[in-house]
Every structure is written in structure tokens, then in C-alpha cells.
Amino acid sequence: MIQYQCALTDDDYIDFNLYTLRKNPAYKRALLLCRFMAPAMLLLLLVVNIINRYDGIGILAAMYGVAAVIWAFAVKPLYDFICVRNIKSQLKRSQSLYTPEYTLYFNEDHILDISPQQETKVFYEKIERVSVHRGSVYIYPTSVSAMILPAAVFSTEEDRERLLSFLTQRRSDLQIERSKS
Predict the structure, then answer these.
(1) Band (60; pLDDT cuts 50, 70, 90)
(2) DSSP readout, 7-48?
(3) Where would you tag: which of 115, 147, 161, 169 has the fewest CB atoms within 10 A of its CB?
(4) Cα of 107 vs its chain's centroid, Å
């Protein structure tokens, strides 16, 4: 049995939510749409100005082009900023978004999550995916919830790898997803 005493911080919670959001196909589609929508509107505005025979069309085209390029690169950091701001706002309004302290027990056939409020048992067969991001490990028993092991609970990289190896021994078909950042 492996045991981890976890103390989740607001930063851990925000990092987890951003990671999960960036993996969401709907977020990726919205971001792609937003990246191309503003430049498309600027192009349409340029065409309208050409049709109306605007005199300074060269300068206007250059300004629209620069604005479109800046928008295409700035939209992702802008989305991230808005998401972080919204999460922080929710954290200020409610203290119950996550459990700050809990213990995870990795037994032979299940994971036991014990917090002051509840006790949850998850069998290894029910785990949908496992992700490693910035040293933290996210274990998803469903697509909408996860057990978060913050990077701080692992004393070394070998400690984290020992847990991941333990999980793959319990479920041979379990894929460990590692983020690039």
C-alpha cells in the first residue's frame, strides 16, 4: 500500500483546472474559432473599405494585418487570463470548491480517498486516465472529476514514477499522459 497526505493549494487547483480545460475539445474548438473570427472580421471590414474606395487603404490594410496577427497570438493568453480570473473569483466566493487536505491510500485493488467530509473508494478498473503535469499527478475516475496529487507530495521524481508504475501494474492498459509544459 502507498499513502500520500495531500495539501492542495489554490494554485494547485487553478493549475489543474487550466490543464483540464486545455485538454477539452470544446475549449480547443472555441479557441480556434476565436483565433480566426477577429481576423476574418478585419478582412471583411477591409473589403468594405475597398468597395467604398477609402483613400488610405494601404495604411488601413497594414493596421488590420498587424491587429490580426497580434490577435491570433494573444487570444490564448487572454483566454487563460480570463479563466484564472474566473476561478479566483469563484474561490473567493466559495470555500467548498475543493478539499484542501486529504489522504490517498493506494491499495491492491482500489484507491481510498479520505477527507474530513467524505470517504471515496475508486477501483483501478474505473480509472479513465492518468495525467502528469508540472510534477502533479491527476487521476480521473470520471471525465469530470479527478484525484489531484500535487507535486509537493512527491519527495523525488522516483517517488512519482513509483506511483505511476504501481498504477500501470494494477491496470496494464492504463496510459499515462505526460504534458509538455
Answers:
(1) confident
(2) E--HHHHHHHHHHHHHH-HHHHHHHHHHHHHHHHHHHHHHHH
(3) 169
(4) 28
- Residue holding cell 477527507? 115
d(CA 82, CA 86): 6
Which has the closest alpha carbon to 10: 121, 85, 72, 112?
A: 85
**What are 103's three cell numbers?**
489522504
Quick one: cell of 37?
473570427
Residue type, 78: L
**CA-to-CA dists, residue 3 to 36, 111, 126, 154, angstroms:** 47, 10, 20, 11
Task: Tell whether the model's pLDDT for residue 54 goes beyond 80.
Answer: no
Radius of gyration, alpha carbons of the chain = 23
Amino acid at 58: G
**pTM value?**
0.82
The answer for residues whose C-beta is within 8 angstroms of residue 12's C-beta and 6 or more apart is 136, 148, 150, 152
Q: With beta carbons less than 8 A apart as the criterion, state whether 178 and 172 touch.
A: no
Which phi and psi angles does 98 have, rounded to 5°? -150, 165
Q: Give the model confidence (pLDDT) of 83-123 as tens digits.
A: 999 999 999 998 678 889 999 999 999 999 999 989 999 99
Q: What pLDDT score does 181 carry?
A: 62
